[in-house]
Amino acid sequence: MSMQQHKSIAVIGLGFVGLTTALGFAEKGHRVFGYDQDALKRASYQSGCVPFYEPGVEEALRRQLDKRFLLCNSIALAVQQAELIFLCVGTPVDEVGEMDLSSLIGALTEVLRCVSKDRFYGIAVKSTIPPGTMREHLIPLLLTEGFELGTQVGLAYNPEFLREGSAWNDFLFPDRIVTGSADDRTGRLLEEAYSLFQAPYHRVSPTSAEFVKLASNTLLATMISFANEQAMLAEKIGDIHIPTIFNLLHTDRRWSGQPAEMSKYIYPGCGFGGYCLPKDTFAFQRTAEKYGHRPKLLNAVLDINRDVMESCIERIVAKLGNLDQQVGILGLSFKPGSDDVRGTPSARMIELLLERGCRKIAAYDPMAMSAFSKHYTFPVTMMASVEELERSSDVVVIATAWEEFRTKQHVFDLNCVIDARYLLEDRGDNCNAQPILTNKSTPDVRLI
Ligand SMILES: NC(=O)c1ccc[n+]([C@@H]2O[C@H](COP(=O)([O-])OP(=O)(O)OC[C@H]3O[C@@H](n4cnc5c(N)ncnc54)[C@H](O)[C@@H]3O)[C@@H](O)[C@H]2O)c1
Predict the structure, then answer these.
(1) Which ranges carry the UDP-glucose/GDP-mannose dehydrogenase C-terminal domain (predicted)?
(2) Is 276 an active-site residue?
(3) What CATH number should be reported for the domain whose range is 3-205?
């Protein structure tokens, strides 16, 4: 192991996240300088006591205190000795959901006033922040304070995914490490510091890194609210044992495997379709209303399914030069691996495009063209291949995630593709930030 990997690190804010981060890095061999503005907290840590319950953390404090973890009585002392600085201060929200960034901005300003101008510091924000904060607040602050990004100081966002109760283990053995650095030097420093962890490492844009943290937590919150809405509905219907319902849902094999097949359902596209999901969600919404329960989440699920197709149509129309140009639809079945076209999003897409005045629509599907022609009477010209569709169309829309379309990526002029299933690696118009850079191959995400 090269000595270069061992860094001098400062951690500012030593709460659940900061203390765990500081001790975790110390445990990995880095030299860590910790500072918290709360003098009582510092005194407690200095005596080897952690004032909150987090298994493994107090033991780690006692192992590392005054060895590789040094408590500092000022932010300046912590910062001056470090090459990489992690900001782990709190970012609470107010009653209207506005995140209070004052501690973070305060801490960053203090850090910037402590750095000496003759060497480089990488600053990594670990506090949870809304997407766009780096771009709109933190980078401008750095410039206002007279720094040039990437020369004297650099900035990155490095979301933390640890869970209270298992913070120590989660920090040392993370599912993945995500960093979004605004400059390359900070990106490299972080990569070296984290190279001591055996975890998949992903470099994304700063805004993607901010986004994934909130997406991760709101996904969990949504699943909890789904379960609670179902339980409230079951109470109204009666004669339903709700723990049994959820235990039965947990036996679905789609929850297991690596990645679990359920991940196919947590992937964006142009909406769900087919014979079952739309019909059954609609019917369940009606059942709920009959029993006097307004199923807010189910209503939102159906609304979003309509909205996402509308948004897809807007993107297609915006790309067309005029309504006489040809739109080529790739995929007619409701999902890959099936020729079922009942309730397929492609049919709704074609219907809406015709309503908007599009006059030339062509399509290709590896399996579902004859089923589609039997089922629907839309004026659509069927093409013999992806290549033929691409050659004759002005805008191509990937509407079903057939593997064939991914493998024929080279055929497309990406400026003319709407990848409505987020299937292609280089996604043409969908890609306004750099794609994920990973030290592991991207997992195969086959879509519904
Ligand atoms: N708690 C979690 O499970 C968790 C998990 C992932 C991410 N996060 C995010 O990490 C951040 C920190 O969370 P936490 O639970 O550790 O918060 P916390 O309130 O426990 O700790 C924040 C610490 O920062 C200190 N602080 C504030 N301003 C400071 C300054 N200018 N200089 C030095 N110290 C300062 C406070 O005294 C406090 O000890 C938040 O943005 C949170 O959303 C939390």
Answers:
(1) 328-420
(2) yes
(3) 3.40.50.720
What lines the ligand 1 site, CB under 6 Å?
A: 12-18, 35-38, 41, 75, 88-91, 103, 106-107, 110, 126-128, 160, 162, 164
* Identity of the residue numbered 434: Q
Coarse DSSP helix, strand, coil percentages of the chain, rounded to the nearest 5 percent: 45, 15, 40
CATH, domain 277-438, list 3.30.43.10, 3.30.420.40, 3.40.50.10490, 3.40.50.720: 3.40.50.720
- The protein residue whose alpha carbon is closest to atom 20 in ligand 1 is 15
- The CA-CA-CA angle for residues 21, 26, 29, to 5°, reads 135
- Cα 269–Cα 272–Cα 278 angle in degrees, nearest 5: 165
Q: Which helix (H) or strand (E) holds 305?
A: helix 296-319
Closest CA to 75 of 134, 115, 29, 105: 115
Q: Which of 276, 312, 416, 431 is catalytic?
A: 276
Q: Per-residue pLDDT tens for 53-99?
A: 999 999 999 999 999 999 999 999 999 999 999 999 999 999 898 99
pLDDT in tens, 382-424: 999 999 999 999 999 999 999 999 999 999 999 999 999 999 9
Q: Looking at beta carbons, which pairs linking 384-391 to residues 24 or more positions away fall under 8 Å?
A: 386/330, 386/411, 387/411, 388/364, 389/328, 389/330, 389/362, 389/363, 389/364, 390/328
DSSP secondary-structure letter at 138?
I
